[in-house]
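In this section we walk through a basic example: taking a raw amino acid sequence and producing a predicted 3D structure, encoded as discrete structure tokens. The instruction is simple. Fold the sequence below.
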Amino acid sequence: MAKNSCHKTKRKAGMVAASTVSERQKRTSLCMSEMFEACDRLDVNGIISLFSEDASFTFGGLPTLETKPNIAESMRSMFANYSKMNHEYSERLFPPPTSPTEPVPTAVIFASDHVVALGTILYTVKNGEEVSVKVCAVVQSRQRQDKSCELIRVELYGDFGALMQAISSLNTEHQQEFLS
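The resulting token sequence is shown next.
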């Protein structure tokens, strides 16, 4: 019987398969998983602790946020609109790696200096409306002196129009309550 083909070495257009994934790429994948788990807990402090001081964060078509304090402020503002969030991305079809030496499945794309994951985020805004957004996350990290990972660049792309509309509706409802 043939070995599991997801661990064969393949190279194509700068992407690598699981058996050739570097420790840095595995570390970035682990850091990305930690970030998504903290998002699912609506834990802004947990998310921000993963970012470097000079990090950048891009959310859809909005301007890129530079520096950890700006990212934290924006996340706190956005998370105030959510009662729940759930990230499901391709890597979660497989158990995530528990160490940088463990093989990572090829469901996530590994480029030379970053990791790309496709997935879906289910947002529940505070009025109970649920919005599902298919996303592409591009994540880059570096190693801290204590050997832990810090995120230096996170780009999250998707069509967030329905989410923005739901948040706008939530704010309109709140304004109507305030005026009553």
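Looking at the output, two observations stand out. The CA atoms of residues 9 and 103 lie 12 Å apart. The chain has one domain: 17-172. In the next section we compare this with other chains.
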